[in-house]
Specification:
Layout (H helix, E strand, L loop, with lengths): L1 H12 L3 E5 L16 H13 L5 E4 L1 H5 L2 H18 L4 E8 L3 H14 L4 E4 L5 H8 L5 E7 L12 E2 L2 E2 H9 L8 E5 L4 H10 L5 E3 L9 H8 L6 E5 L1 H4 L7 H23 L3
Parallel strand pairs: 1-2, 1-10, 2-3, 3-4, 4-5, 5-8, 8-9, 9-10
Antiparallel strand pairs: 6-7
Length: 275
């Protein structure tokens, strides 16, 4: 159901843009300092400005947790606002959670029941019993970290595992898990050449692609190598949108950047025949 709604939004907005909410008070315009909840009000203005051009939002949980109880309350308000005002927009808790089964069940309850996210990012290192509790929720998704763009990605992800890089083994194994149809996958934008290979391994899965913009990933390379017949991509941009301006016009500048990305995405969607 969620996948169908997501595809409907992609076609309606001609976009597969995900806006990351990595909220750092040090980068929020000083004009907002007098607001009673600066974190929430910053996010609210970013959401209102960019909602016409994106199909998903991805709050980075660490950036909210860093402010303790204040940050957690702000996150609750952000999710309440999104679910009330923009229920058609897909939400991702960028939390990278996973632990022994009983602990994962509590993480899943926190993000899917309490905060009402549509999905949560998962680190797969502990295997199926750390991931399957998230897959028990009908209409919710676990987004599995497969290949990332950070400097240390090669420490483990490309290790030879019986003749194949470890990330391939993770993909193969994950497809055997219960409710594997509720999995999505994270592939860093700077790994766009490897993305072509990954798309062949999981041709129908939705891929979350962070790293376009501030991290240097190429939207063109990502779309050429990652788009499938139903789009199958969510391309995330965080800092490149939300901190495009540090002035009082930050929300309008964010909207302009998001609109520019949306227009590029529309071109690639039409070229692929998705629209």
């Amino acid at each position: 159901m969620i996948q169908q709604l997501l595809l409907k939004e992609i076609k309606r907005k001609k976009s597969f843009l995900c806006v990351g909410l990595d909220v750092d008070k040090d980068q929020i315009p000083s004009d907002l300092n007098d607001e009673p909840d600066v974190i929430f009000n910053f996010c609210k203005r970013i959401i209102i400005a960019t909602a016409p051009y994106c199909v998903a939002y991805k709050p980075n949980i660490a950036f909210f947790e860093a402010y303790g109880l204040e940050g957690w309350k702000s996150l609750e308000k952000v999710m309440g606002f999104l679910n009330k005002e923009y229920p058609e927009i897909f939400t991702i808790a960028d939390a990278k959670r996973a632990d022994i089964g009983n602990t994962s069940k509590r993480y899943a309850k926190a993000f899917f029941e309490h905060l009402e996210f549509d999905s949560v990012t998962i680190a797969p290192y502990m295997g199926k019993d750390s991931v399957e509790p998230f897959l028990e929720y009908k209409g919710k998704y676990a987004i599995l970290l497969i290949l990332t763009s950070n400097e240390g990605a090669s420490d483990f992800q490309f290790i030879n595992a019986e003749g194949k890089p470890l990330y391939e083994r993770v993909i193969e194994q994950s497809k055997k898990w219960k409710n594997a149809d509720r999995l999505m996958y994270v592939v860093g934008a700077t790994k766009s050449k490897t993305l072509k290979k990954i798309r062949k391994l999981i041709p129908d899965s939705t891929l979350l692609i962070p790293g376009v913009g501030a991290q240097g990933g190429s939207l063109e390379e990502v779309t050429v190598n990652g788009l499938n017949d139903t789009c199958g991509l969510l391309v995330n941009s965080s800092r490149g949108i939300i901190y495009a301006s540090t002035g009082s016009d930050f929300d309008q500048v964010a909207a302009n950047v998001a609109k520019d990305l949306q227009e590029q995405m529309a071109f690639y969607l039409e070229k692929k025949g998705v629209l």
